[in-house]
Every structure is written in C-alpha cells, then in structure tokens.
Design brief:
With 247 residues, the chain is an alpha/beta fold. The chain has 13 helices and eight strands. 46% of the residues lie in helices and 11% in strands. The radius of gyration is 17 Å and the shape is globular. It holds the Pfam family CCG.
Length: 247
C-alpha cells in the first residue's frame, strides 16, 4: 500500500501540528507514508470564490504530485471533498480521475479502509464535543445527517469511543454550520460571526472542555469566536487525540 499524505495549505501555515499528528498516527498504524514535497493547495479557495479557470493550474499540480499512489490521505474533509467532487477545472484525464477516486479524508481512511479497532496509546480524560465540517458531513457522509430520517452513525465518534477516558458532550444542534465556510467568512463577516457565536455557545452549554473535529479550518474560526466571547473552550484536531495527545 502506497499512501501519500496531503497537508492542506491552512494546516501547513496555521496548524502544522495537525499534519505531524496525522503522519505519526498513520505510522503507528503501520502505514508507510510518503509526503510529495512539491504539493501545494488543492484549488478549493479559488473554486469556492467562483474562480474555476484560475484553479486549473493548481489542480493540475495536485495531480502531478499525487498520481500513482494507492491512497491520498488528508486531515481535512473540505479539501478532500473538493478533490473528489469539485476538481473540474483541470481536464479529466485518467490520471485525474484516479487521483480523485483515491483521495480520502483521514477519518474515512481509518474507519473504512484500515478499519482500526483500537488506539492502545491514546488516552484523553476529558469531556469532548464533536464538530463535523459541513463538507465532510454532507459531502463525504462521515456521519448521519440529523435532517434525514436515517439510522444514526458517526465515523469520528466510533473512532473516539476507542480512546480511553474520553467522554462526549451532547450538543443541542450538532449538525449546525459554524459559519466558517472558507471565503464566506471573509465576504460575509457579520453573518459568519453570528453563526460562529451560536455554535460556540452551544458547545459551552454542553459542558465540553474540548471541541474536536477533522477540520482545523472550522475549529480555527470557532476558537476565535470563543475567545472573543470569553468562553473557556479548547480546540483540538481529532488526529491529535487519536495520536495520543493528553493536553
């Protein structure tokens, strides 16, 4: 199994510890991980802003870096969803189609491909609220959507249940968007902030000590909202918990 690690640009710039935790976690699970050094952005920010043609060169570079691997794994649902569902600016060659079909978000890869049954090194004795990024939830189906009448399932919760000492805080509106939305938080700052305030206040009322997610982008937005409201919440990527972070 040849596995390539894709570290999104915002993780690389703002939360490099998440990329490191992802690498260490995969290696603990026996995966031989490679990191293509010429990788950059997947093109999502440009596509989200309507600049589809401008993202073509970035998407082509992504394919050049990740072609030929059995799996491409990333600690980001939104970036993975872009690659799988929205990487349309580049010509859809066989190599592009292959890269798109072999790209997986970290939780998907652990749950669906590796089918991990235990994290014996992980212990996190804290009460944790779980946030599912909208793209990961509704685009990648990492959990059941509360607006649909379907049996409940949650891939991230299933993995976190295997961490010693961790307990869950239940949110009143677990599937509500936090308002980040990538460039949405820039162009619709007021709406984005109001949504973020609603989200973090729900987290605080739940009694959570920590909030975790498989997307650092949402948590970066939520952490800023919580700090401005003076709420004593801490934010940590799920890869760090599964890798054995104690905090």
């Amino acid at each position: 199994m040849r596995v390539a690690l894709f570290v999104p640009c915002y993780v690389d710039e703002f939360h490099p510890e998440v990329g490191i935790a992802t690498l260490e976690l995969l290696e603990k699970l026996g995966v031989d991980v490679e990191y293509p050094p010429e990788q950059t952005c997947c093109g999502q920010p440009m596509t989200n802003s309507g600049c589809h043609e401008e993202s073509a060169a970035t998407e082509a570079n992504f394919v050049r870096n990740f072609a030929g691997y059995d799996y491409i794994v990333s600690p980001s649902g939104s970036c993975t969803h872009h690659v799988r569902a929205n990487m349309d600016a580049v010509e859809q060659s066989d190599a592009v189609k292959e890269v798109r079909s072999r790209s997986f978000e970290l939780i998907e890869f652990l749950h669906d491909i590796l089918k991990v049954e235990a994290f014996p090194w992980a212990e996190f004795p804290h009460k944790v609220a779980l946030h599912n990024n909208c793209n990961a939830l509704r685009g990648l189906n990492i959990a059941s959507m509360s607006e649909l009448r379907v049996p409940f399932f949650s891939k991230p919760k299933s993995l976190l249940e295997k961490v010693k000492g961790l307990t869950f805080a239940e949110l009143e509106r677990p599937d509500e968007c936090c308002g980040f939305g990538g460039t949405f938080s820039v162009f619709e700052e007021g709406v984005s902030t109001a949504m973020g305030y609603d989200k973090v206040q729900d987290q605080y009322r739940s009694g959570a000590e920590y909030v975790t997610s498989s997307d650092s982008s949402c948590m970066m937005h939520q952490q800023g909202c919580a700090e401005r409201l003076g709420l004593p919440l801490k934010y940590i990527h799920i890869a760090q918990i599964l890798n054995g972070a104690r905090e």
